[in-house]
Amino acid sequence: MARSVNKVILVGNLGKDPELRYTNSGVAVATFSIATNEAWKDPEGNLQERTQWHNIVAWRKLAEICGEYLKKGAKVYAEGRLQHRNYDDKNGVKRYVTEVVLDEMVMLDSRGAGGSQPEYHSQAAPSGQDQSAEKSDDLPF
What's the CA dihedral at 37, 43, 47, 49 to 10 degrees? Predict the structure, then answer.
């Protein structure tokens, strides 16, 4: 049986500063969005543009790095896996979320002459484990 692959690679700009918080057991989690743009000419030759927004979730040390170094408008390379989940909001309405669980991140904006940009990797949970769910006594990852 063939292996399956769940890999997302994005290069885009942050829509706002990452929101960094900690779970009850002290695990860091950062959430932010990345905008990617595409442009094409329609049949009449007019330039058309579209922006897609992607929800990103980073965990542990990678979350702390994102919270400290990434800022609104920053260009980043983001690599991770696609995750779908749902939850009930405050009014009991079921909400569905699609997000990229970040495994690697590279800041692409220049920080001055001659400086190379650092690359960051996380130690992600095995595929199939929902990192958004927290247990009070222990985390599943």
Answer: -20
